[in-house]
Specification:
With 227 residues, this protein is α/β, with parallel strands linked by helices. It has helices spanning 21-32, 46-56, 72-82, 96-105, 117-129, 137-147, 161-171, 176-183, 187-201, 206-221, and strands at 12-17, 37-43, 60-63, 87-92, 110-113.
Amino acid sequence: MTTQAFPVNSPIRVLIADDHPVVRAGLRFSLSAAAGYELCGEAENADEACALAAKHAPRLIILDLNLGGRDGDKSVSQIRQLCPQASILVFSMNPEELFAERALREGANGYLMKTDGFDELHRAVRQVLAGEVYLSERLSKRLAGAAGGAKTPQGLATLTGRELQIFQRIGEGRSTAEIAAELGLSMKTISAHRENVKRKLGVPNAAELIRQAVAWVLGRGNGEPKN
């Protein structure tokens, strides 16, 4: 697919992909208050996002990772293939210290947490549209610390994006049924993912899996991930 050139001084076409209507409305309102943006579509699931991306060739795509149960990494990769010219800004609740690097590897230009607010959103948008990579100051410092020898949680790096989502939710106290409902997957699929996580982390049983997940979630809250 060839890269599409954008007309000089044309409005920046924006595609918003998020499965929560209130989030889409907030993004729409925030961007409409700033000059130079033109909303070309809103999607509530990954299939809609891909279809609208292919149809409208947006210059900016604001993308949630949790869309209709699909693994977020795959959504980024597929949309990148459909729109090689677009700037993709992931806008997510998933922990940036684990998901941001994965999203960037799959083709995202930036990763913004939904807790960061609209001022930071506009800074991130400007940065990715300028051809730069956006990461929060928190994550940049964490990565600098890792480069200087800080330890990362053992075993977590081997998990897929979907497995990390499930591990996080286990640590937050959610049951298999609750996780299945939240991610739009079957309980059987969630149970299979749990078994994969147990195997990759080398934990012997469900109780130990829960203990490690809870410890990691609490550790993240204190600023340091733990096993």
